[in-house]
Amino acid sequence: MPRELIDSISAQYRELLAIARQMASRDAHLERSKADYKAQSDQCEPIKLQTWDGYQQGELTAPSLAEIYAQEDAGEEARAPAEHEDQLQRLFTALPYIWNDPTAMVPDQAASRQEDEELKISGGTIELTCPITCQPFVRPMISRKCGHVFDEVGLRRFLERQTKPCPQGACGHNLSMKDFVPDLVMQFRCLLHEARGPLTRNASEDPADIV
After folding, report:
1. What is the pLDDT of residues 15-31, one digit of tens each?
2. What class is the 118-196 domain?
3. Orientation of helix 87-98 relative to helix 184-196, angle to 10°
4. Which pTM value belongs to this model?
5. Residue limits of the SP-RING-type domain (predicted)?
6. At what angle do helices 3-42 and 87-98 cross, to 10 degrees?
7. Distance between start and end Cα atoms, the chain
8. Could you tell me the CA-to-CA distances from 67 to 22, 36, 72, 73 in Å, in that order?
């Protein structure tokens, strides 16, 4: 798969993520402004015959939604959500490396996210088996806290609806099922491995070991 094509798709996807973050931030901004406007309006004197002249002459004032929105807007940049690495973005980054070898490590992720501690690694490759069940991944789940990956069946059996230390030795994080999300990269690794079958497995074997 051409690296240039993956880079182009990944860049476009990052732009879409940035637009989505901006839209979500603006929506939240508007909702805050509306809530502030309502709170301030509730504190104002109701408009009636006795107060009408006061509002007309400026002795009484009512809040302006536009002004409140503008005041909120001044601090919006500081509150803007931080960019985060989306699951699909991780997949786009990994594709050029795992397309030919689903067990290959992803150098950029290994450096920036310490992926070498994220998964079981043997001989510089990623094992496609769950550390809990010791079986091939069926529905891999990745921890948002520590990045370790386990199969959902084994994970539920291990946690038993409780909060427990991460099954990966020496991790130290306390985890529950709500801390896990599906791992698209591992899912794609497993799909590629299954689709390629013997071709993928033979590619990683040493020719000298083949009789």
Report:
1. 887 888 888 888 888 89
2. alpha beta
3. 30
4. 0.55
5. 115-195
6. 170
7. 32
8. 21, 11, 9, 10
